[in-house]
Amino acid sequence: MHEPYEPHEAYEAAAYEREAVSSDASLDDRQVEGALRPRALDEFVGQQRVREQLSLVLDSARRRNRAPDHILMSGGPGLGKTTLAMIIATEMGAPLRITSGPAIERSGDLAAVLSTLQEGEVLFLDEIHRMARPAEEMLYVAMEDYRVDVVVGKGPGATAIPLEIAPFTLVGATTRAGMLPAPLRDRFGFTAHMDFYTPEELELILHRSAGLLGAPMAEDAAREIAGRSRGTPRIANRLLRRVRDYAEVRGDGHLSLRTARAALELYEVDELGLDRLDRAILDVLMNRFRGGPVGLSTLAVSVGEEAETVEVVAEPFLVRSGFLARTPRGRVATPQAWAHMGLTPPPDAAFGAATAGATAVGTANGAAAPGGAAPGSAGTGTP
User: Fold this and answer.
1) Backbone CA torsion sign across 42, 43, 46, 51
2) Residues 225, 206: contact at Cβ < 8 Å?
3) Fewer CB within a 10 Å sphere, N or C end of the chain?
């Protein structure tokens, strides 16, 4: 039986189409990010509340000479979860072991990792929500009692042999916290939610990265790049490298505002961070479907993409930016979208009626109304 198609896989499959603003990490990103990552908590820009809470957890653990509580970090890709895991290990003076949920296919895979951990070691488990269920159940005992039960044999003669493991700290990272089982989520002593960054925070990150890359840039150029980075440091650093490339090849080597605008226009990233796919969705929604509502599958076919790609890759940013509303009847273009695309909504545009329905649903779920709604605050509208 084929495994179900994960939205994360759709995200990766579409990365080459939107490399400039994709928040997934390519091989090139991972290599460059290694040099740009901050090494200490004091160097980490943004996430002030998370940094303050995490600092308290680590300081307390050092005072007691104990491993810190297990830590769960949730939030979109590219917001710094892996960087914080590395900082935790550095701050505690402990080794760091890195693996991912998809790599843990059986409980034996997890047992092999846990049984070789040193005392106090930090285990970073990325995309923890994609770990196999048998491994999750083994992880419950390991996190609480520092023990794994290894089953030897099969059938009635099978025997469970308890294997003690060294005290360790699990740092789990997930982009979809709602997919974590409650028993696993409850075993984390500290849970941090990573928010999107403000333009001012991204400017600080860009200046630091530019200095490390040996390509200092003007203040207004940093402001321009930060405004198109979708609140994500990974995207900001990627756009910075593209602007640097443009300045070296087609410019005078200086990262000025004019160079930044020319480079970002070449890579089809507009002033608000929308790329080709984002604008294609809005264009089809407004010009072909008169602003909606339209179902997800129909919208995806119209732009020539998989439904998972539209839902996972483009929609979260469009909804968060107030350009798209998800209602029980389907997707609807907001007045902000019409204005941004330079179009006038027709008199019979369905936005008004659809917004009323979305507002009712959003209010019932405790969410904001469309225009500032979070993704998933209403029905998907899939036919």
Assistant:
1) negative
2) yes
3) N
